[in-house]
């Protein structure tokens, strides 16, 4: 019995008379470390920052495709409006800065960094809102272009045979450009909405941290 107790580590000492003295082990509070508000804040801020940086990369990549692609005269005005606004690049850069600040603020956990993250997330929310409006307007304009392409198809049947093949080529180019750009803008719109939600949530999170009096949440890092 004594050997079994020693093997389990319960027996800490014994007296000269052979009386075993047992000491209780202190309970391990592993949950305290897991439930530490500072650790939770760090993890949450890191996830938010990574998502915002990914949104930046995807939106800027799609913007580069918009710049480099050749377009027909039907869709050029729509694409020019989006590119001249600078949203695919200026907005994406804003998202990258916000995401980086979010990750740093989660690690530092000081009020100046929290205030910086709050400000940058508010700006990102505004930028995403503007981008959402531009992309929605662009999708509506592309829908009009698609209808115009369909109306031109009816006109083709009345053309002479010599002009038919040239006109059908323009129709196919118009339809292909409209469909491909619609898909591209839809993807960009999805990540813009995601960025808007992340920035709005992060703004709420950092606002709470700035106005928090809990030293566990706003430690010196």
UniProtKB/TrEMBL annotation:
<dbReference type="GO" id="GO:0016020">
    <property type="term" value="C:membrane"/>
</dbReference>
<feature type="transmembrane region" description="Helical">
    <location>
        <begin position="118"/>
        <end position="136"/>
    </location>
</feature>
<feature type="transmembrane region" description="Helical">
    <location>
        <begin position="87"/>
        <end position="106"/>
    </location>
</feature>
<keyword id="KW-0812">Transmembrane</keyword>
<protein>
    <submittedName>
        <fullName>Membrane spanning 4-domains A7</fullName>
    </submittedName>
</protein>
<feature type="transmembrane region" description="Helical">
    <location>
        <begin position="47"/>
        <end position="67"/>
    </location>
</feature>
<comment type="similarity">
    <text>Belongs to the MS4A family.</text>
</comment>
<keyword id="KW-1133">Transmembrane helix</keyword>
<dbReference type="InterPro" id="IPR007237">
    <property type="entry name" value="CD20-like"/>
</dbReference>
<feature type="transmembrane region" description="Helical">
    <location>
        <begin position="175"/>
        <end position="202"/>
    </location>
</feature>
<keyword id="KW-0472">Membrane</keyword>
<dbReference type="InterPro" id="IPR030417">
    <property type="entry name" value="MS4A"/>
</dbReference>
<dbReference type="Pfam" id="PF04103">
    <property type="entry name" value="CD20"/>
</dbReference>
